[in-house]
Structures are given as structure tokens and as C-alpha cells.
């Protein structure tokens, strides 16, 4: 098990390297630069800026410099938030994004799995159809619509919850953004669970369990659920990574100081270092959660156990 | 049959219907059946006869779209329509069941010890430790070696035969009155089949439960059952003592079933017949484990130095149990997998040909698979399926020409040429296998490798497919390699026999000679098991 984890962490190094390399060059090949503003800067200022940020160096040298700095945890200064380094920006915003993302993940997982299981057990009933239609609605309505509508109803009309901001970080500030963030994922979990649960309920070993007089609750929870959770667990990794690295839309609508908006802002402004920092962050999250999921998967399914 | 035996399960006018999008299917159309203490009753029928659904209905295990009417009383208690919690007191305790698919009937995610213990705990209560002790006792009883170690195994760590033993242990756990065995040995190798049946028989002698054996295999019935019930299309055709049924069958259907054992023999080709396909010192290694970061590669030798010569017009039967390397050998001979050795097709050395160089020869060498459900693309029409090869090998043909060839091929395998516009799922297993054969012969090959082509089919359908293969062999001068674990089929169709075990040939020679006087101990065991159970 420990050997497996170490091996996987070892293989993460080349993965990260490839991700960094590809995004570094892709970013640079895109037209424009961080200081190409609407009103062009005087050539002297431009030259100065380029020198300060070492953008006048040949590309390969910039790449080497970036890599060797990144290895030490130095992701360089941000070009648009000029007083901050990328590491500081991410360090400040990430806890908010992780907390919000974690609650959203919990809501999506618990809600989605419960709804999916109920739908599967009542397959083709009215309840099943209503849950699945709801899930479709959840996936199709974009969160820049869900967010404002939630605010309108619960914050403005009913005055039950704050309309935005982090406040003191209490739950009341988290509820609305959490729902907006979780809804599409909840729909995916519900769909996945329903599908795999229906399949699991038709498995031969479920027939065996029923033939041996085990109570319905045991058949469903012990024997069907565990197998049905396997595809759900697989989806957990990309979902957790996406939710916890922040959503530009939801964080902007609810004015949450997370890291979600950095990726979009950085990309739009050709803030090379900020985009690179965000890419590395997302890559690390994906790698870590994939590892967590693989370990979970092994715990659930003895056939793929890593020993 | 003694009259003092008491009826413990009485089935009266039992009907099972399934609601499908195409209307209601009457799977069981009102049957009467008695099961008496300690007897062995065989329920015989081909697929679709309703033999399994009858038992499923009694056990309350029908699929959701299935409905049951009529009556099934266990010691006076009506089981049809019984509330689930009441039914759960009977099933798994008084009436237990083992299934055909030992590979999937156990939950892959739990240790076998826990799975056997579950019904004990639910029906008898007691502590986990007591249940565990009982499980060890049961594993010992069903002949699982090293029960203390095996109790903590997962199903995937056991062989098919062992899993079926685990199922039997589960079935015995609460000392049932009735054990329903639904095709318990169909998925197992013949030597394992014999062991499982012997085990069931000895356990029955010890514990005195009644066994209901659902099967399509009359060979098993003759040696195992006291009474036989023959079912067809949801109706009870005939019932009586085993000996009566076998010696004096009353209905035409029973007579047909009894006569459906593969018959006929094949004469060897003339001595002068040239060799058409040859493989010398065939070796196939499979890599197991080993990846980018996991270090050492390990190999498993699937085929270990086999030499085989197929003469024109010959049928070589390759028999062996699962894992013997017989299918792998077939694929190696067709150069479909990486393998070592020297291969010749006619006078051409094909040992070193790459995929592209092999392509023109592919037309001459065709393969028919076991699974007529999985080997036909469900999204292509039958016409598209069988003419796909023509597009590659005879690209000059016009659409009309291809269509004509498809019609001719379908006609030749005994199907309506109109079938080409329909999809594979609309056909029965036997018809699908005919489609797969049409796909092979449409290219006018010289060699066809048949990999268990009849194993998934009912006996009566098997006979038809074998007759078809024989006719085609003559009209197209085909040479066959017939891979099978079914010795009676191989005896009927092949003139040369190769017996494989662990990747090696243990015995080969004239089919009839080997069946009459097998030399090797393994061959003897195989033939013994196949014809004595």
C-alpha cells in the first residue's frame, strides 16, 4: 500500500512536468502579452517592464527559469496584481475555495447518491421520473442563472440568507454559493448512481442474496450499494478537484475571495505566471484526488486492491 | 419411487407471465408438480421452456416485469403472494438454491466466509463467532481445501468449481428441506462437473434433503435423478421415473430430446491430402503484471510447444478444459496473437508475415466464435455483418453483387435471405451462430477455426449446427479445427483428436481410436467424466 502511494506520487512528477511545459508554451503562443493594454504604453516603459519581468529573454531561457523557480515553490510575481506573488494570491484565496468546494462536494455526493438510489429502487415510477427530470434541470441551467435566482429568492425576497460575501465564514454565508456550486454535480451523481444501482440490482449475486432470505435493506445497502458506488467514486476525483479549486462564476456572483476567478482573469490578461500557478494548482488537486480515489476504490473492491 | 414419501412442495396450476413492450409473454402456462422428501427430481427442458422461471417464481425471484399466479405450497404454507418478510423465513432456510453462474452468483466485494455466514445469522441468529465456526465446518464438508485460509478469500480468488462448492455450502448452511440446483454444472469443466454432482449426491445421502435439478443435459439426469419432469414452452410435457422416461418416452418432444445427442462420425481425409495449415512448436506467452512503474514483467505460458498439421478436408477436434490453451492455439494458428513457432499456410511460410502481409490470406482462414450474442455487432444489420469481409477482400464487388452473395450465404446456412435486413438481436442463439458461419463462408475460405461454436446452444440446436457444418465442409471442401470442451460433439464431427492440458498436447490421434482406447490418464479422466455422469 505504501509502496503503491509512493509509486503514484513518483509518477506525478513527470505528469506535472508535462502539464507545466504544455501550458507554458501554449500560453506564450497565444497572441498578446500582459502589458498590451488598450492604450499602448510608451516604448521605453514597455521595455522597462519587459526587462523587469525578464520577458525580453529568449523563450527557452524563460522556461528554464520558470521551471527552476517553480521547483522551489516560487511561481513568480503576478502581472496584474502587481503587489502580490502568485503563491501569495493562491495562498490567500485557496482556503475559501476549498471550504466552499468541500461543502458543495458533500452536498452533491450525499444528495446525488440518495436521489439516485431512490430513483433506481423505484425505477420507471413517477418518483424516478421526477428525480431524473430534476437532475436534467440541474445540469442544463447554468450556475450564473441559478446563483442570481437563489439570491433573489432567499436573500432579497425572503431575506433569509446573506446575498454574498464570506462574512464571518458561518454557514449562512455558505449555503447559497454551495447550492449553486453543487447543483450540476449533484445531478451528475444522481444520474451515475441511478444507472449503476439499477445495474447492481440486476446482478446475479443480488438474486443470490434474495434467494437466501436476506432482508431487503441488507440486499440493497450491503450488496447492491457497495458495488454501485464504484463508478460514483471514480467520478469523485475530477469533481472534487473542480469544486475545490474554485468556480469563477459562483465566486464572482457571491463575492467570495477564492481562487476561482484567478484563472479566468489571468488568462484574459495574459498574466502568464498567475495562469501557470492556477494550472499547477489544479493539476496537483487532480493528481491527489485521483490517488485518494484509487485507494478508496481498492478499499471498496478487493479485485483491484493494491498490495 | 416409494409411496411413503411425503410431498413437501406442491405446485398447482402455476403460471408465470412477463410484461414486455411487445406484449405479455407466458413463460409458464400452468404446471403441476410435486416435490417429495429426499427425492431427486430433474426438471428438463431447453432454453425458453420455463424450467428456471418456475423455480424463480416459487422462490419469489422473478424479474420486476414478471407475475405469478397459481399455487405453490411448502408444507401447507402458500408461497405465491406471500409477504416478503414471511417468504424470507422460508427461502435460504428451508428451500435454498444454487445457480448456474458460479462466477457471478457470489458478491465479488465480500469474503466468502461472510457471505456463507449471512444466511446463518439471519435465519438462526447466534454470534458471528458461532457462525464462523459453522462456516468452517461447511467449507470442510463441501471439500474446500484449507478452510481456515479459504474462509477469508474473495470469490475472485477461487476457481469456478470452488465457487460452486461455496454456493453449495451456503445452500446447506441451514439444513434445508429442498435444494434447487439451477444448471449447477453447466458452466464448469467436465471433470469438475463430475465432482460437483458427486458432492451433491453424497450430501443428499447424509442430510436427506430433496434436490430439484434444473438442467438441459440429459446425461446428468440419467445418472442423477430419480424422477424426471420434461418441460417445453412453459408446459409440462411428460413426467415419470427416470428409467421409464429414458426407456419408454411417451411424447415426441422427449423422444426428440433423447435423440438429440450428437450422432454420426467423420471419416478421415485420404492419406494423400496435402497439409493446408501447419504450426510447429507453437509457443504463446502472456504477460502478467509489469507496467511502467511496477518493475519486473512475468509471463504465463498459454501454449507450450504444440505442433499441429491440418490436412485438406480434415477436421481436427481440439479438446481440453478451460485454461488448457486450446482457444489460444487457434488464435496463434491464425496469426491473430503474438506467438513463436513456424507457421505455414499451404506452401507459404507465414511465420514472419506482418499484419498487412497477412491480410490477403485472411480470406482463406476464418474464425467462428463461441458466443453468438457477443460476436455479432448489435448495431449492424445481418447483411452488413456478413458482407463486411467482402468489402475488405473483394473491394471490386458492387453493392448488388455483395447483396447477392449475402443472400446466397444466408440460404446456404439455412436462413431466410430476407434476414439480411434485420438486426442480430432479433434472432435466436442457433440462428445467430448460423449468421456467424455465413460471415465466415461468404469469403470462400479454405480453413475455418471453430471456437466452441455449439457450446452456447441447446442440444437439439447443436445437432442442427453440426449437420450444417458437415454439409458446408463437403460442398466447400473446408478444413476445420474444432475447439470444444464438449466431447460428444467433438466425437461426432472430427476425424482427428488433440487433447490439451496446461498448454501441451497430452494425446492425439484418430478420434475413434482415442475414444475407444484412451492412453493418457488425463484423457481417460476426461472421457470418463463426460460419459459417466
From TrEMBL, chain A:
Transmembrane domains' residue ranges: 12-30, 100-121, 141-161, 173-192, 232-254, 274-300
Top-level taxonomy: Bacteria, Pseudomonadati, Pseudomonadota, Alphaproteobacteria, Hyphomicrobiales
Q: Which gene encodes it?
A: oppB
Q: Where in the cell is it found?
A: Cell membrane
Protein topology in the membrane: Multi-pass membrane protein
Cite the entry's keywords alphabetically: Cell membrane, Membrane, Transmembrane, Transmembrane helix, Transport
- Organism this protein belongs to: Neorhizobium lilium
UniProt keyword Protein biosynthesis present: no
Assigned GO CC terms:
plasma membrane
Which residue ranges does the record assign to the ABC transmembrane type-1 domain?
94-297
Q: What is this protein called?
A: Oligopeptide ABC transporter permease OppB
Q: Mainly resides where?
A: membrane
Quick check: keyword Membrane in the entry?
yes
Q: Which domain of life is it from?
A: Bacteria
Belongs to which family?
Belongs to the binding-protein-dependent transport system permease family.
Under the heading PROSITE patterns, the entry gives:
ABC_TM1 (PS50928)
Name the NCBIfam families for this protein: PRK09471.1
Biological-process GO terms, alphabetical: transmembrane transport
Automatic annotation (TrEMBL), chain B:
GO annotation (BP), single: transmembrane transport
Source organism, top-level taxon: Bacteria
A GO molecular-function descriptor: ATP hydrolysis activity
Leader sequence segment: none
* PROSITE patterns per record: ABC_TRANSPORTER_1, ABC_TRANSPORTER_2
Q: Which InterPro entries match?
A: AAA+_ATPase (IPR003593), ABC_Ni/Peptide_Import (IPR050388), ABC_transporter-like_ATP-bd (IPR003439), ABC_transporter-like_CS (IPR017871), Oligopep_ABC_C (IPR013563), P-loop_NTPase (IPR027417)
- Name of the featured protein: ABC transporter ATP-binding protein
What is the organism field in this record? Neorhizobium lilium
What lineage, starting at the top, does this entry show?
Bacteria, Pseudomonadati, Pseudomonadota, Alphaproteobacteria, Hyphomicrobiales
Amino acid at each position: 500500500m505504501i509502496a503503491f502511494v509512493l509509486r503514484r506520487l513518483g509518477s506525478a512528477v513527470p505528469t506535472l512536468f508535462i502539464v507545466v511545459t504544455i501550458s507554458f508554451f501554449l500560453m506564450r503562443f497565444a497572441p498578446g502579452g500582459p502589458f498590451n493594454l488598450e492604450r499602448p504604453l510608451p516604448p521605453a516603459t514597455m521595455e522597462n517592464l519587459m526587462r523587469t519581468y525578464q520577458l525580453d529573454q529568449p523563450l527557452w531561457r524563460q522556461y528554464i527559469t520558470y521551471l527552476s523557480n517553480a521547483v522551489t515553490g516560487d511561481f513568480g510575481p503576478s502581472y496584474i496584481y502587481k503587489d502580490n506573488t502568485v503563491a501569495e494570491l493562491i495562498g490567500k484565496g485557496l482556503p475559501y475555495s476549498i471550504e466552499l468546494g468541500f461543502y458543495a462536494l458533500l452536498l452533491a455526493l450525499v444528495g446525488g447518491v440518495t436521489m439516485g438510489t431512490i430513483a433506481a429502487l423505484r425505477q420507471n415510477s413517477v418518483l424516478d421520473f421526477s428525480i431524473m427530470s430534476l437532475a436534467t434541470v440541474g445540469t442544463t441551467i447554468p450556475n450564473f442563472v441559478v446563483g442570481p435566482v437563489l439570491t433573489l429568492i432567499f436573500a432579497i425576497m425572503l431575506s433569509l440568507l446573506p446575498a454574498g460575501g464570506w462574512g464571518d465564514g458561518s454557514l449562512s454565508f455558505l449555503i447559497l454559493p454551495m447550492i449553486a456550486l453543487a447543483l450540476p454535480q449533484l445531478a451528475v451523481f444522481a444520474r451515475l448512481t441511478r444507472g449503476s444501482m439499477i445495474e447492481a440490482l440486476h446482478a446475479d449475486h443480488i438474486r443470490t442474496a434474495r434467494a437466501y432470505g436476506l432482508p431487503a435493506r441488507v440486499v440493497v445497502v450491503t450488496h447492491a450499494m457497495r458495488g454501485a458506488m464504484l463508478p460514483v467514486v471514480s467520478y469523485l476525483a475530477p469533481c472534487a478537484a473542480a469544486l475545490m479549486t474554485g468556480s469563477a462564476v459562483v465566486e464572482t456572483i457571491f463575492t467570495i475571495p477564492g481562487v476561482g476567478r484567478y484563472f479566468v482573469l489571468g488568462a484574459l490578461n495574459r498574466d502568464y505566471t498567475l495562469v501557470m500557478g492556477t494550472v499547477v494548482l489544479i493539476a496537483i488537486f487532480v493528481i491527489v484526488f485521483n490517488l485518494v480515489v484509487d485507494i478508496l476504490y481498492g478499499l471498496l473492491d478487493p479485485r483491484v486492491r493494491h498490495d | 419411487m416409494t409411496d411413503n414419501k411425503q410431498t413437501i412442495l406442491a405446485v398447482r396450476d402455476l403460471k408465470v407471465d412477463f410484461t414486455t413492450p411487445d406484449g405479455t409473454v407466458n413463460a409458464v402456462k400452468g404446471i403441476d408438480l410435486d416435490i417429495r422428501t429426499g427425492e431427486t427430481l430433474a426438471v428438463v427442458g431447453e432454453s425458453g421452456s420455463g424450467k428456471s422461471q418456475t423455480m424463480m417464481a416459487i422462490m419469489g425471484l422473478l424479474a420486476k416485469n414478471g407475475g405469478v399466479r397459481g399455487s405453490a405450497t411448502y408444507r401447507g404454507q402458500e408461497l405465491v403472494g406471500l409477504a416478503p418478510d414471511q417468504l424470507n423465513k422460508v427461502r435460504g432456510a428451508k428451500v435454498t438454491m444454487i445457480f448456474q453462474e458460479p462466477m457471478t452468483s457470489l458478491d465479488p466485494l465480500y469474503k466468502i466466509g461472510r457471505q456463507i455466514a449471512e444466511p446463518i445469522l439471519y435465519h438462526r441468529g447466534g454470534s458471528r463467532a458461532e457462525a464462523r465456526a459453522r462456516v468452517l465446518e461447511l467449507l470442510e464438508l463441501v471439500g474446500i481445501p484449507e478452510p481456515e485460509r479459504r474462509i477469508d478469500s474473495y470469490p475472485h480468488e477461487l476457481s469456478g468449481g470452488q465457487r460452486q462448492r461455496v454456493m453449495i455450502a451456503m445452500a446447506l448452511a441451514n439444513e434445508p428441506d429442498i435444494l434447487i440446483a439451477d444448471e449447477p454444472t453447466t458452466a464448469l469443466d467436465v471433470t469438475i462437473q463430475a465432482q460437483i454432482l458427486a458432492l451433491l449426491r453424497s450430501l443428499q445421502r447424509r442430510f436427506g434433503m430433496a434436490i430439484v435439478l434444473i438442467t438441459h443435459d440429459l446425461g446428468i439426469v440419467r445418472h442423477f435423478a430419480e424422477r424426471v419432469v420434461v418441460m417445453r414452452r412453459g408446459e409440462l410435457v411428460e413426467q415419470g421415473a427416470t428409467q421409464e422416461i429414458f426407456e419408454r418416452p411417451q411424447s415426441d418432444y422427449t423422444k426428440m430430446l433423447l435423440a438429440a445427442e450428437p450422432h454420426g462420425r467423420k471419416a478421415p481425409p485420404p492419406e494423400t491430402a496435402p497439409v493446408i495449415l501447419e504450426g510447429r512448436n507453437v509457443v504463446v506467452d502472456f504477460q502478467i503484471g509489469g507496467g511502467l512503474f511496477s518493475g519486473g514483467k512475468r509471463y504465463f505460458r498459454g501454449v507450450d510447444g504444440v505442433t499441429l498439421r491440418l490436412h485438406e478436408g480434415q477436421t481436427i477436434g481440439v479438446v481440453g478444459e478451460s485454461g488448457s490453451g486450446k482457444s489460444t492455439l487457434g488464435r496463434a494458428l491464425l496469426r491473430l496473437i503474438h506467438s513463436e513457432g513456424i507457421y505455414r499456410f499451404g506452401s507459404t511460410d507465414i511465420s514472419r508475415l506482418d499484419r498487412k502481409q497477412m491480410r490477403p490470406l485472411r480470406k482463406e482462414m476464418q474464425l467462428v466464435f463461441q458466443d453468438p450474442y457477443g460476436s455479432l455487432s448489435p448495431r449492424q444489420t445481418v447483411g452488413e455483418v456478413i458482407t463486411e469481409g467482402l468489402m475488405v477482400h473483394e473491394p471490386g464487388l458492387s453493392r448488388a453483387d455483395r447483396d447477392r452473395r449475402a443472400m446466397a450465404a444466408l440460404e446456404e446456412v439455412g436462413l431466410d435471405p430476407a434476414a439480411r435486413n434485420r438486426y442480430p438481436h432479433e434472432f435466436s442463439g442457433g440462428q445467430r451462430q448460423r449468421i456467424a458461419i455465413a460471415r465466415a463462408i461468404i469469403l470462400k475460405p479454405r480453413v475455418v477455426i471453430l471456437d466452441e461454436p455449439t457450446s452456447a446452444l441447446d442440444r437439439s440446436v447443436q445437432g442442427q449446427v453440426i449437420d450444417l457444418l458437415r454439409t458446408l465442409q463437403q460442398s466447400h471442401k473446408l478444413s476445420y479445427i474444432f475447439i470444444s470442451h464438449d466431447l460428444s460433439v467433438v466425437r461426432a464431427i472430427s476425424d482427428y483428436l488433440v487433447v490439451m492440458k496446461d498448454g501441451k498436447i497430452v494425446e492425439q490421434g484418430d478420434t475413434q481410436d482415442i475414444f475407444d482406447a484412451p492412453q493418457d490418464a488425463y484423457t481417460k479422466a476426461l472421457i470418463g467424466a463426460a460419459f459417466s455422469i
